[in-house]
Design brief:
single chain; alpha/beta; Signal recognition particle alu RNA binding heterodimer, srp9/1; 2 domains; 4-stranded mixed beta sheet; 4 helices; 8 strands
């Protein structure tokens, strides 16, 4: 038996930002999250449909764990959210004034995607599954397991 076989993980993504209220407003207004904890320094969001959780902490609040702040500039980080229809989400978000970083696009691994950016510079990858005739090698490897 594996050492982790009986271990159950529940997790969330954490962002350290300058303005938690601005981030809260973005995720609740445009992506349907609700705030379970909402303070000036810390906001904990949950998506009611999927259960996806997002923690937002004000920069400078973790003096004992400064290393967390150095890795959260938004570079090299994205949040992926599965949606029912990427095209409809793109149109809805565009109408709401959200900048579309990448217009809806079919990906060779079997997703239709659209990419937006949150107020902190973090990319949000919205996708739904599509059928592809010849999936890329990446899709072949991930589905063969």
């Amino acid at each position: 038996m594996s050492k982790t076989e009986n271990t159950r993980f529940a997790g969330y993504t954490g962002l350290i930002v300058k303005a938690p209220a601005e981030s809260r407003d973005f995720y609740t207004s445009h992506l349907g999250f609700t705030a379970e904890i909402d303070t000036e320094a810390y906001v904990h969001l949950v998506h009611p449909k999927t259960g996806f959780e997002l923690a937002i902490l004000k920069a400078g609040e973790l003096d004992q764990m400064k290393e967390l702040e150095f890795s959260t500039t938004g570079n090299g980080l994205w949040i992926g959210l599965e949606v029912e229809n990427a095209d409809e989400e793109s149109a809805r978000l565009w109408d709401a004034g959200i900048t579309i970083v990448q217009a809806p696009k079919d990906q060779p691994w079997g997703e239709r995607t659209v990419v937006i950016r949150d107020p902190n510079g973090v990319l949000i990858y919205l996708a739904h599954k599509i059928k592809v005739d010849n999936p890329s090698p990446l899709e072949t490897v991930s589905t063969a397991q």
